Amino acid sequence: MLPHRFGAVPTGEGPNMETVPPPQRPGDLGEVTPVVLPVAPASARLARQHIQSVTGRPEDGRIALIVTELVNNAVLHARSRPRLRAAVVDGVLTVEVFDDGPGLPVLRPLDDSPTVSGRGLALVDALATSWGVTPDPSGTGKTVWATIALD
After folding, report:
1. pTM of the model
2. CATH number at residue 37
3. Tens digits of per-residue pLDDT, 98-124?
4. Among 12, 30, 35, 124, which residue carries the largest CB count within 10 Å?
5. How far lies 10's CA from each of 15, 74, 95, 103, 129, in Å?
């Protein structure tokens, strides 16, 4: 497990995997209707446009990177239609992306690996106020969430 600002984040799959529940939910997003996105590269752009409508602000690079990473992970790794929910409560944006894919995302350490991918969650970790993974109670899929304090 890698140390994390808000707990332990899985670094691989297996019986010792842990998830990081939201340390403090700024609001219950259960009442927010999810936006169902296609399994396509355009999903990230559509998600960013939706986030702009939720925040009422021009696109913010930090938020755009976080949203793009969460949605692209659902499209590329889970190969399922991402469901996006977002709300701003008390100056904090909460973004949730649900997918039907098995397994949980893995935060890999930044190292000298020659691979050209696999570092997106490190960006989320560096840019988000908090983030984590909540497995779906049905056993199928998960919600990857992030909170971002708005300036």
Report:
1. 0.80
2. 3.30.565.10
3. 999 988 888 877 776 666 666 788 889
4. 124
5. 10, 17, 20, 11, 18
